[in-house]
Write a structure and sequence with these properties.
Helix content: 55-70%
Largest sheet: none
Oligomer: single chain
Order of helices and strands: HHH
Shape: elongated
Length: 61
């Protein structure tokens, strides 16, 4: 079985890590070094951003 392609780009994940305050951990230890809570917060924030983008699109119709 092949590895699943991620939904978020690497650049977007790094931007989220910077915004959420654990970018340094990612730099030093890789993505495996972050806490489960940080990963969950990253996903939550990505969903919020996507929802805002969709709301902006629907408002432009």
């Amino acid at each position: 079985m092949g590895r699943r392609r991620g939904v978020m780009s690497e650049q977007f994940k790094y931007e989220l890590a910077k915004d959420l305050g654990f970018y340094e951990t990612v730099q030093q230890e890789g993505w495996g070094g972050i806490r489960a809570r940080d990963a969950g917060n990253m996903v939550k924030r990505a969903i919020e951003i996507a929802e805002q983008a969709l709301a902006g699109q629907s408002g432009n119709r």
